[in-house]
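Ticket 4471: requesting a sanity check on a complex prediction with flavin mononucleotide. Repro inputs:
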Amino acid sequence: MALDLFSPVKLGAIALKNRMVMAPLTRNRAVAGGLPQAMNVTYYEQRATAGLIISEATPISPMAHGYPALPGIYTDAQVAAWEKVTDAVHAKGGKIVMQLWHVGRISHPSLLPNEALPVAPSAIKPAGKAFTYQGLVDYITPRALVASELPAIVADYVLATKNALAAGFDGVEVHAANGYLLDQFLRDGSNQRTDNYGGSFENRSRLLLEVLLAVIAVAGAGRVGLRLSPVNPFNDMIDSQPQALFSHVVDAINPLNLAYLHVVEGGIHGGGIAAPFDFASLRQRCTSPYMANLSYDKARGNAAIASGHADAVAYGVPFIANPDLVERFKQDARLNQADPKSFYGGSELGYTDYPFLSA
Ligand SMILES: Cc1cc2nc3c(=O)[nH]c(=O)nc-3n(C[C@H](O)[C@H](O)[C@H](O)COP(=O)(O)O)c2cc1C
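Returned structure tokens:
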């Protein structure tokens, strides 16, 4: 029988009951101390029929924050709070991995300890505005990290991975997409370093590889995924040779036997693409399971699975508005429409109150 979205699959060591993945979605509804709260538990529990949930991007350290009301994964209290989420998802038969996040230059001193400058591969100010507790303000020029500071950042990923496993997550996804720190190192629009973390593809991939190896040493490769977004212009990102760069990255990670490679196949938030790109060829190079994302619906998702383009498909906005998206796809039922006004921050409204089919 042909494979489709409802066929089980194993991504590394993680067994999924179907191939519909809830994409990572920042919702800015944590409380002081970076703690997930009761409504966050309900939200994830409601979506546990997904084959896999990828958590909202979660800062690995106080310096990794870049938006208000994010939940963290670097204190014992955060571990205890997240444990309620993983327990609820597991009790409903779901699986959940945590997306590990360092925002790099996409931040603002008002969001960082002691009003620190955001850090980045190079002191290049991104175009656009930071979301702060005081509203939207221009980004400022970040401070370029010196190479001797990078081991501490790798250590933050290690601590975050230990904490995520202690909180009961089935694995972690290293966030190297969407213009945040690891993506800032990969792409030459944001990385103009002249040391061995800049210049060649190998050098620009070095921090990512160091992070992956360190995280794998904690979790095992079968519980580590990676997210990339080769031509997503979001957060003022661009690269001069994306196809060659990301071919290099995929060749470099293939020997690691990651649980999966998760690829945003274009630009998010309707932002178009930074350059033309052949995702089929990237997929063919990749020897680990491949998770596709961006604007998939049921038909395109099934086609991607049946053709072998993807082993799993991640859905973002559809899972915001449809906690029972799997059942709705099974029944070809109508989908609830998402309300973008309640995406980032707020209450249960537009968060846990989207109706189920049965309602
Ligand atoms: C409200 C919102 C929050 C998002 N937060 C994250 C995030 O935390 N991490 C991430 O990698 N992508 C994030 N994204 C991107 C989504 O994971 C996904 O790539 C995007 O929505 C495209 O998939 P879709 O067309 O199925 O919605 C976010 C998107 C939206 C709309």
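Notes from triage: The domain at 9-342 is CATH 3.20.20.70 (TIM Barrel). Leaving this open until the requester confirms.
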